[in-house]
Task: structure prediction
Amino acid sequence: MSGIAMPEPDPRILARRDQIVAGLREIVPGEGVIDTEDERRAFETDALTAYRRMPLAVVLPSTTEEVAAVLKYLNGQGVPIIPRGAGTSLAGGALPQEDAVVVGVSKMACVLDVNLADRTMRVQTGITNLGVSGAIAHEGFFYAPDPSSQLACTIAGNVAMNSGGAHCLKYGVTTNNLMGVTFVTMEGEIVEIGGDAMDAPGLDLLGLICGSEGQFGMVTEATLRILPMAEGARPILFGFPSSEAAGAATAAVIGAGIVPVAIEFMDKIAIDICEDFAHAGYPMDAGALLIVEVEGAPAEIDEQLARIGEVARANGATSARQATTAAEAAAIWKGRKSAFGAMGRISDYICMDGTIPTGRLPEILARITDICDAAGLKVANIFHAGDGNLHPLVLYDMNDPVSLAKAEHAGEEILLACVEVGGCLTGEHGVGIEKRELMTAQFTEAELFQQMRVKSAFDPNWLMNPAKVFPLELRAETRKAA
Amino acid sequence: MTDLISPIDEAGVEAAVHAAMSSKTPIAIRGGGSRAGLGRPIQAARTLTTEKLTGVTLLEPAELVASAKAGTSVAEFEAELAKAGQRLAFEPFDHRALYGSTAEPTVGGMVATNASGPRRVIAGAARDALIGVRLVTGRGETIRSGGRVMKNVTGYDLVKLACGSHGTLGVVTEATFKTLPIPESELSLVWEGLDDARGVEALCAAMGSPFETSGAAHLPATANAPARTVARLENFESQLRYRAGELEKLLKPYGAAARLDAGASHDLWGEIRDVAPLLGDAARQVWKISVAPSRAAALAARLGPLVAAHLYDWSGGLLWVAVEPTDDAGSSSLRPAVREARGHATLVRASDAVRAAVDVFEPEAPALARLSEAVTAAFDPAGVLNPGRMHVRH
Ligand SMILES: Cc1cc2nc3c(=O)[nH]c(=O)nc-3n(C[C@H](O)[C@H](O)[C@H](O)COP(=O)(O)OP(=O)(O)OC[C@H]3O[C@@H](n4cnc5c(N)ncnc54)[C@H](O)[C@@H]3O)c2cc1C
Result:
């Protein structure tokens, strides 16, 4: 087991396990309460697989009312709660603890309403991200935030993490496409926040809840902004001799007043691995590539790609290849969207998620190389270049604790470098347990205490996903600070 | 006459808040004062203005980001952005026309009121463009949230919370925005003579098309002009022609459209942003109602006798209503109708006396009100910043 500590389980809660399970069974019938060790094992980790903790029990309610009763009960019993969607968090956001009950929304996955005139959709939050777009695709509409994990991850997780995706450069992240939620408080109250009317007056609790990493209460339904699909979309691949040149081209495209739907970056190692997996025709002789996607009617696309091509060539692009068929376009994206999976086939990795001001790209890439070289580790860089959201994948060997420790340490150094150049620790994956102890590098104590006071406003007993986001040491002090 | 405090830096703001805390005397927070008529009137012996905290502090067009101190005038900020080919995509709402004010709107006031204009319908609100803030909380502490990068989920999103909080959580001292390039050109299509329901329907059809309508308003008929339904397109010149043609085809069932060129389009959208068609009689009280477009026209019809003038923006999602002046601004009949349409209403123009007597903002359900109060108390435990500006505190 590795570096990041979790609080010691409370023996008084462990001792009451049977009684707590019985209490849950009174609220949620039958298979909705999971307590055998075998079945609980499926919930002991998320996508930060180096960390595992067997939860006390797992509850999968079928209605918002059940969720409310469960929260009220557990809050009354003083038992920690770990909300869970699909468990794809890369930050350990859904990691359980031994004295906590996992409350999952996987049985609440229905589309409740679609209104094309209003461009809104109401869903239960256990629905997958792709399930949302899938339900409206035949109408020519889609839901914009598109995390690479969209096949599996849920709207619940997306809202909790304020998830992003490749197409967020144009369409924004979850918070920009979320209009309302049904929110269950720790007291078991069901509160409607926002809805299908824009910009509810009053404090923007919707904006606050989005990205609160499941630390305030549970979100069981959501009203989403849906958008009409563009007439068409086409990616173009540019090869560059170096990462620096690709970085400069990104800034130049945006500086020229063109904001594509997506600008994605891969370095040499990432290109090799993804090409091997997806056979997308990536330029194998390039030091880095950019995938730039634009939308519109065919003639509009031609015109935009011509402008972008000019800028790219002026910045040293050595090759350019447009997708000429839908299959080619899909292959280009398949390489990118399956990058993490492809990487996972050849090595264990930890995926970092810092964001930097894009102007500092060359400098940061050089530092990432130095940091990983010094640790004797390989690193592949894949990221959302348009918005500076980096995903260095630091490769290590899961069976070698020394290698994991080195990778975690290198990852930390990379994130600290991101903060140092004016960026942040996490652009879309969240803090979870992974970046918890680094928060003091980005925030002052006053800033952290202010955030912790906000958590206390929702969850005075600190039972909701309590061991995440804030350095463990600070938690003891908040009680004093609150 | 209230005392005016005008700090020249953040430390001065902190000192003022500390003084307010220790003497338990609330302070009113003001930017340029152009939005003084917004929100519930409050009693405060002292007023803190941010007008001396000025300057554009960051402008990086290639990164689509810009920052300004709170007291910077919106006009200056936008002018600096324009020089770099950038703009604030949410088209800041300007309250001056509504209040007949000559004061200068500031960046801080724009943030505190989440002041978004017509383009909000496609580009998001001020809160969506805001990516970083510095604020001095009601505890007298300066905190930052967000930053200068577009994608950032590090810690809670206090940026959104600060936006639209009307100075009740903290004094915003500096704000950072995502900006967007100014498109090459714009034009508008105008359909005449549609009734409200058909007008809103046409706008929804435009918004549901792939042509990226960046303004969608319906101006009902007046005594001397027919109704106008207006859709704006902004883009490269060459794309505009194509898109306008396609949109006309799509909306053929609503009749033939007239085209407004860039200049005329720009002027008309300026008037729509300022809700100029509603401003005829300065005594009239004005409501801003958010409601799903599909329920907007029915709501307006239901409010019928109350309505002196009205217009729809945001594809019908924003209904502006002017009423003849009364002691409660028509609140007793308007609020239940809005609630039934699952919308919410803000009384944006009425005398201090009326705004003190009726809810200015949509009353919150009890559980929601409790959460809002707990969050407010987390920032301003002593209740010294703009207390009661949004809701009466318990
Ligand atoms: C291969 C891969 C690629 C990825 N690509 C991206 C990407 O491109 N962009 C991106 O942003 N992320 C990405 N992620 C990260 C992850 O998919 C997102 O964070 C996602 O939103 C998590 O959703 P989930 O349903 O799996 O949530 P979980 O992992 O189950 O939970 C995530 C967090 O949400 C909380 N939560 C869950 N349900 C609720 C609820 N009902 N109420 C309140 N809180 C709740 C949990 O407690 C936890 O803190 C990727 C992950 C993987 C494995």
User: Anything to note?
Assistant: Residues 278-357 of chain B form a domain with the Alpha-Beta Plaits fold (CATH 3.30.70.100). The longest helix of chain B spans residues 10-23.
